[in-house]
Amino acid sequence: MTPFDSILQGLLHEAVPLLRGLCSNALIGVYVIQDDRFVFVNERLASLFGYSAQELCAGMGPQHLTAEGDRPLVREQLTRRLSGQVQSSHYSFRGVRKDGEGLDVEVFGVSTRFAGRPAIIGMLMDVTERNDAERAVKDQLQFITRLVDTIPNPVFYKDEVGRYIGCNLAFEQFIGTPREQLIGYSVFDLSPPDLAARYHAADQSLFNSRGTQVYEAQVQYADGSRHDVVFYKATFDKADGSLGGLVGLILDISERKQMEQAIWREANYDALTGLPNLRLLRDRLSEELERARRQGSTLALLFIDLDRFKEVNDTLGHHVGDQLLIQAAERIQAVVRSSDTVSRQGGDEFVVILSDINNAQAAGMVASKIIRLLHMPFLLGSNEVYVSASIGIALYPDDSQQQETLVSYADQAMYAAKASGRNCFSYFTPSLQEEALRRQAIGKQLRRALAENHFEAWFQPIIALQDGLPVKAEALLRWHHPTDGIRLPGEFIAVAEEIGMIGDIGNLVFQQTMDLLQQWPSGQVSVNISPRQLISGDCGLWPQELAARSLPASCISVEITESLLLDERPIVVNTLLGFHQAGMEVSIDDFGTGYSAMSYLKKFNIDYLKIDRSFIQGLANDNTDRAITEAVIAMGHKLGMKIIAEGVETPEQLELLRQAGCDYAQGYLFARPMPPAAFIDYIRQHQSA
User: Fold this and answer.
1) Calpha distance 289→655 (Å, rounded)
2) Could you report the per-residue pLDDT of 124-176, keeping only the tens digit for each?
3) Which one, 103, 417, 551, 562, has the greatest CB density within 10 A?
4) Whole-angstrom Cα distance, residue 660 to residue 468?
């Protein structure tokens, strides 16, 4: 006899108490069915359905406790066992309590014989709570699945060894494979080798230190294109606390990367020429200087300014000027090496970094080539345009080892090249720095002088040659310097223009001129206006200020340079025309030394031409100067203008001007510039005479 047989005999011997214990348990319902009726039920089963055991065994059968929809199932299961088709069965159905409330039950039954006839004995359990819990979990899973599928970004799940166990719809579309075919595969099965290795290493790192993980990488879409993405991953645990795997989300940042690249390029490159701008130039220069320090090599910085570019821009239009700048950039790039940097600083200025050059002469050779190329004609549409270039050169380490200083020195050298006649290059020299420091000091002194009222307008008479009387004057600025005495405009006006003070100084001269005219209402004073004053609009309200003082507009004549006639900017044109319409007169100062722009003389209604003193000085002994002077006088009269000769110092010059028909003259022969009080005395003396 086997141990099992021995145990079975023991159980059979104790069958009665064991069966009684089973039937009386409070957890599981026990039943015996015969002839489709209950012949026995325990109290647990009866209480589950709301009956007493006596009620159920008084003629009721399984059908009375089964929901209508499940009765065929229950009937079939009973029939199969009672007919001997199966010995046992296990199934679930929806039950009905006495009060009509439903419940879920699970049945285990076996065929047997009772009182010599077929019967079924079995157990029944209430699984309503379990089923409700399972349905809730299923509903939650369905909700989560739907929710995850609505996420537009790819979402995926992996087990603890990195195999895919699920994903959302977006991930299917991204990878081009249905989720059912992903289950059990790894990144090495689905991604290119280089990307798969990157993903696998990141997964292993996350598994080794559970938590979250964020990193940028690339992915390959189903169409083969690669995109920049950010991976967001987190681990999850199993119920027992062991590692379950990870969940990940992919965020495509390709557009953001492209936008960042576009923003970076816009911030670092010139939109017109495509060259590095000032910001990127400074970064490049810093890098090249550091490399030059390490290698002990020489670096050259070239500042390039296109001469006469403004004339092209103003006369042919900005679109032509833009084309010129584009072609100029191409010509400069054609000269330098690919390792060098060409940058546009705005306007018509370019900067070149020549790294690792042999000496200063090598930089000069490059500058000469650039000058030759830029001096060649530019074909811009139907226009053939000529410009030139002025280039300043500063060297590291010879001139300076500091970046900002080197930039400043190259800029100073460029201005020195312009001052030398343009279309050339100039090396930085210490004297240029001395000049720059001098101009900087003058700038500081000018600001103090304006604040402390050190400027004064002096006046030089202009004589009518017909009767020899002073009928006009020119306002000339003087600076009462606290240590240097009287300083003339030629020493500081250029600096005032550079630092933006010319408008304030010009308005001061105008105010003092109006003060004088209130004492000399019959006179007229010429006031010099710089191009910057016209462009800034500082003088646009002068006619109204004259009216506010009850002074006629004709008492002021504004003096402009000949080159200003070529400036066709609306603010310049409108301001000059506004002066004329108000009754103010306009003079061309230093006529004959600038551009020959005869058509512009009529366009701007010019009233006076002032012959430059350089022609007057040679009037008595230079036939050319005399011929030019006589021609200007004759031309001016033909155009309806009056002529003023400036710089008259000798009686011979005066007599020749009278003979030529000149209208007015000014110079030391008559009087030097003088302060307002002295000028008023001078006028009174000559009027009484």
Assistant:
1) 66
2) 999 999 998 888 878 887 887 788 888 889 999 999 999 998 899 999 888 88
3) 417
4) 16
Cis preceding-peptide flag for 552 (omega within 30 of 0): no
> Of 467, 523, 462, which is closest to residue 658 (Cα–Cα)?
467
Q: For 151-256, CATH number?
A: 3.30.450.20
Region 269-428: CATH code: 3.30.70.270
Give the per-residue pLDDT at 567: 66
* Structure tokens that stand for 578 in this block: 């506004």
Following DSSP, what letter does each residue of 165-197 receive, concatenated?
Answer: EEE-HHHHHHHTS-GGGTTT--HHHHS-HHHHH
Burial degree of 264 (CB within 10 A; 0-12, 13-18, 19+): exposed
Residues 667, 668, 671, 672: what is their CA dihedral angle, to the nearest 10 degrees? 100
Contact 534, 572 (CB under 8 A): yes
CA dihedral angle for residue 441, residue 447, residue 451, residue 454, rounded to 10 degrees: 60
Same fold, 18-129 and 151-256: yes
Provide the residue type at 396 as one letter.
Y
- State how beta strands 226-237 and 243-252 pair: antiparallel
Residue 44 is predicted with a pLDDT of: 92
**SS3 letters for 344-360?**
EEECCEEEEEEEEECCH
Greatest CA separation found in the chain?
Answer: 167
In this structure, are residues 599 and 630 in contact, taking their beta carbons and an 8 Å threshold? no
User: Tell me, what's the pLDDT at 5?
Assistant: 57
**Minimal CA–CA distance to 272: which of 211, 237, 244, 313?**
313
d(CA 540, CA 530): 13
CATH of domain 18-129: 3.30.450.20
Strand partners, 304: 350, 391
Q: With contact defined as beta carbons under 8 Å apart, do 347 and 324 qualify? A: no
Tokens of 473: 């004057």
User: Per-domain residue ranges for the chain?
Assistant: 18-129, 151-256, 269-428, 442-688
Q: What is the pLDDT of residue 597?
A: 52
Q: Which tens digits make up the pLDDT trace of 422-443? A: 899 999 888 877 777 788 888 8
What confidence score (pLDDT) does residue 99 get? Answer: 94
Catalogue the long-range contacts made by 573-576 (C-beta closer than 8 Å, 24 or more residues apart).
573/604, 575/534, 575/537, 575/539, 575/540, 576/534, 576/604
Name residues of the chain where pLDDT drops below 50: 8, 11, 596
Q: Would you tell me which CATH number, out of the four given (3.20.20.450, 2.40.50.140, 3.70.10.10, 2.60.200.20), belongs to the domain 442-688?
A: 3.20.20.450
Q: Is 101 exposed, middle or buried (0-12, 13-18, 19+ CB in 10 A)?
A: exposed
Q: CB–CB of 393/428 below 8 Å?
A: yes
What is the reported pLDDT for 11?
47
